[in-house]
Amino acid sequence: MHEATAQVRAHALDEAETVAASAGGGAAILPPDAPVRLARPRSQWRDVWDQFRHHKGAMIALVIFTLIVLFVLIGPSLWHIDATHVDIRARNKGFSAAHPLGTDQLGRDMLARLMVGGRVSLAVGLTAMLIAITLGALIGVLSGFFRRLDGPLMRVTELFLALPLLPLLLLMVTLFREPLSKHFGPALGIFLLIVTAIGATSWMQAARIVRGEVLGVKEREFVLAARSIGTPNARIISRHVLPNVMSPIMVAGALGIASAIITESVLSFLGLGFPPDFPTWGRLLYDAVDQMQMYPWRVILPGIFISLTVLCVNYVGDGLRDALDPRIRGR
C-alpha cells in the first residue's frame, strides 16, 4: 500500500515538472536548496563612463589630451637633447633631421623646449587647480551648510570677484618674486609663487557652485535623518554632503586646469613668469615675439599646444558635466 502511494506521488511530481518545464520554455526547475546568484549592481562610475563615451567631442578631446600628456612626460626620455643647451652655431635653424622643429635664436632645440615647457605648464595648471578647488570647495561647503557663516563667506567671495584679477596677479608676482627666488631658488620659487597666486585668485566660481549644491543637499531626507539621530556635522559633511557635490567639483576642476594654463601663459608672455632658462609654453611665446615675422613657427608651435590643451580640457569638462548630471543625460 505504501509503495503504491509512493509511486503515485512520484508519477504526479514527474508530470508537474514536465508541465512547468513546457510552460517556462523548457527551463529546468532548480532544486530548493540550489544557490541563487544575483546580478552584481552596476557602479555609478561605470554608468558615468558609459555616458561619457557617448560624447564624441569629449572622447576625441580626451585622446588628444592624453597624447599631449604622453608627449610632455615621455618625450624628454626619448629625445635626449637638453632643452637648455645653447649652440650658437645652430641658431635660427629650420626644420631638419637633427632639429625636427628647428632652433631658437640661441640654438636651443625647439622640440625639447616644447616638451619641457609643456611639462611645466601642465604642472602649473594641475597644482593651481588643486589649490583653487580645495579652497573653493571648503568655503562653499562651510557657507552652504552653516547658515551663520553664509553671509561673511559670501561677502568675501564677492569681494574677490570684484577685484581686477590680472593687476592683482601682477602685483603679487612683483612683490614676492625676489624673496621666494632667494629662499627656494629661481625655478621652485617662481613655481610656488605662480601656482599660489593663480589658486588664490580663481577659487570663487567653485565656491559659489559648491554652495548652491550644498544648500539643496542639506535639505534632503537622508541628511535630515542623520541629524535626527544625532550625527555630528563633520560626519554628515564627509559621509553625505561631499559625495553628493563631487560632480560639480570635478567639472570645475577640469575647467580650472584650462584657466590656470592660460593665466600662466599670460604671466610668462608679459615677462613675469619663469626665468629664461626655465621654458614654458608662455615663455616660448614671449621669447619668439621679437622675431615673429622672420620665424613665425616659433610662435605658432607653442600657441597650437596651448590652444589644443585648453580646448581639450574644456571639451572633457563638458563631457563630464553631461555624464555626471542625470538631468541632461542623453541630450
UniProtKB/TrEMBL annotation:
<feature type="domain" description="ABC transmembrane type-1">
    <location>
        <begin position="118"/>
        <end position="317"/>
    </location>
</feature>
<feature type="transmembrane region" description="Helical">
    <location>
        <begin position="249"/>
        <end position="275"/>
    </location>
</feature>
<keyword id="KW-0813">Transport</keyword>
<dbReference type="InterPro" id="IPR025966">
    <property type="entry name" value="OppC_N"/>
</dbReference>
<dbReference type="Pfam" id="PF00528">
    <property type="entry name" value="BPD_transp_1"/>
</dbReference>
<feature type="transmembrane region" description="Helical">
    <location>
        <begin position="59"/>
        <end position="79"/>
    </location>
</feature>
<dbReference type="InterPro" id="IPR035906">
    <property type="entry name" value="MetI-like_sf"/>
</dbReference>
<dbReference type="InterPro" id="IPR000515">
    <property type="entry name" value="MetI-like"/>
</dbReference>
<dbReference type="GO" id="GO:0005886">
    <property type="term" value="C:plasma membrane"/>
</dbReference>
<feature type="transmembrane region" description="Helical">
    <location>
        <begin position="120"/>
        <end position="146"/>
    </location>
</feature>
<keyword id="KW-0812">Transmembrane</keyword>
<keyword id="KW-0472">Membrane</keyword>
<dbReference type="Pfam" id="PF12911">
    <property type="entry name" value="OppC_N"/>
</dbReference>
<feature type="transmembrane region" description="Helical">
    <location>
        <begin position="158"/>
        <end position="177"/>
    </location>
</feature>
<comment type="similarity">
    <text>Belongs to the binding-protein-dependent transport system permease family.</text>
</comment>
<keyword id="KW-1133">Transmembrane helix</keyword>
<protein>
    <submittedName>
        <fullName>ABC transporter permease</fullName>
    </submittedName>
</protein>
<dbReference type="GO" id="GO:0055085">
    <property type="term" value="P:transmembrane transport"/>
</dbReference>
<keyword id="KW-1003">Cell membrane</keyword>
<dbReference type="InterPro" id="IPR050366">
    <property type="entry name" value="BP-dependent_transpt_permease"/>
</dbReference>
<feature type="transmembrane region" description="Helical">
    <location>
        <begin position="295"/>
        <end position="317"/>
    </location>
</feature>
<feature type="transmembrane region" description="Helical">
    <location>
        <begin position="183"/>
        <end position="203"/>
    </location>
</feature>
